[in-house]
Structures are given as structure tokens and as C-alpha cells.
Amino acid sequence: MKRIFLEEISENVEITGKDANHLANSLRAKKGDKIIAVDKFGNTATLELTDFDSETIYAKRISEIKPAENVRKYITLADCLPKQNKFDTIVEKATELGVDKLEPLISDRTIARPGNFRAKTKLERWQRVAKEAAEQCARDTLPEIGNIQELTDWLAKISPALGNFENGKFNGQGALLLFCYEKETEDNLSEILGKYKNFDGDKNIIILIGPEGGFSEREVREIKNCGGVSVSLGKTVLKTDTAAISALAIVQYELN
To answer: What pLDDT, on the 0 to 100 scale, is given for residue 42?
Structure first.
């Protein structure tokens, strides 16, 4: 059943813009068809399409609103921007793999450095990509996409909320920051998550991926000083977009 995202689910709904165009022209929706509506809080309900005009599709709610389940894990992907439009693919696949928030970052070796206008345009496109991916994979929530920011600034913001993972034990307070590092030889992502998932409590994980040239030595020290734990994704050195998708797949496997 087709799924759309709305600000609010009410008794009667008017669907406009790209959603209406997609339903009417791409999916050939017609009067009497039923769709799933999801609001910005993850609540869901079934709608029946009741009427069409040139720009609007009208619908009525035919099922009770089902509240979103309490979140037991929260996954953030922080990714230093890759070249070209590879971040579009990362957004799409991260949405499919259940990421709750994406943080686009600029690091020492990041090549893609969009100005203010291009950054705004990119953010709008990433939000569209995430929305389409969420509808396709039947998610109940849209991932949040942060503004493009410097890695150092982002670390300063999140460091007070990070927990401590040391000697295979997590202190149980705050988020766990794991950064994928090609020079890490001892701890791999799967092993760390295997220990972390045994901690009794909500899971809050941040996966940090570097750019094409990897993290600089300065950045590695900075990330570790903030409480970040370096992890390996295996013996081969992966491209940045492949690393992001691989890491998220491992997270989903270990925590689900």
C-alpha cells in the first residue's frame, strides 16, 4: 500500500504538490484507493482517496491513528561529504537501513565544499531523496538531515552527550561514537557492537565515516579525545560511500 508523509493526520486530508502528482500520474491512483499516511511523529493511519481535482487529492481517514512505538535505538550517520553526488546514494541507502539522522560534514581532506546557496540546494534534494526512500521501504519516520558543518564544530557540539566505551565496557550514559578508520587493526565494528548490544538500555549509536582521503592524524586525535572509538570494517580499504552502507548494514544486523 502506498505510503505518504504528512505534517498531521486529520479526519479529512488534502494532498497537494509532488505527492498528489505522484499518486495521480505515476501510480495511477483513483477514487476509492487506500494509502498509508504517516505524520512527522511516526503515527500512522489508513486514508481512502475520495476525490480528485487538477491540483489536489482529497482523502478521509478510515482507521484509528496508531501511535509510533517508543524508540529503543537511535542511529546517526555522520559522513564527510564525498565527491560528486555520491551523498545522494548514501542518503537513500541510509534511509532504507533505518538511520534516524544524517550529518553531512566537511573534514580536512573533504574535496566537496559547497557554498551557502549550493548547500541549501543540496539539503533540499537530500530531503526529497530521503522522503522517497522512506515511502518506498515503508518506514514510519523520516530521517533528519542536518546542515553541512565542519567536523571540528560538530564534534564540539556532540562531545558533551557522548558516553565512554573502554576495555570492552560502556558506562551506560550518552551516545556511542564509532568512527571507521582504515588503520585500526584490533577492534572491528561487529565485535564492538556485539559487546555494546548487551548493555541494558536504549541504544544511541553514531557512525562516523571519513572522506575519500580518510581522516588526518589531527582529526583522529580530536575524535578520540571526544570519546570516539576507532573500528575496522575489514582488511580491505572501502570507498567512503561503500563504507557508510557497509557499516550501517552491520549495525542493523547486530542490533536487530
So the answer is: 81
- The CATH number of 3-61 is 2.40.240.20
CATH 3.40.1280.10, domain 73-255, yes or no: yes
Neighbours of 11 (CB within 10 A): 7
Check whether 70 has a pLDDT greater than 70.
no
Residue-range domain boundaries for the chain: 3-61, 73-255
What average pLDDT score do residues 202-215 get? 93
Cβ neighbors of 189 (< 8 A, separation 6 or more) are 178, 180, 231, 232, 233, 247, 250, 251
**Helix, strand, or coil (residue 89):** helix
pLDDT for residue 116: 77
Q: What does the alpha-carbon distance between residue 188 and residue 235 come to, in Å, rounded to a whole number? A: 10
Rounded Cα–Cα distance for residues 89 and 133 (Å): 10
59: nearest Cα among 2, 124, 132:
2
d(CA 81, CA 76): 15
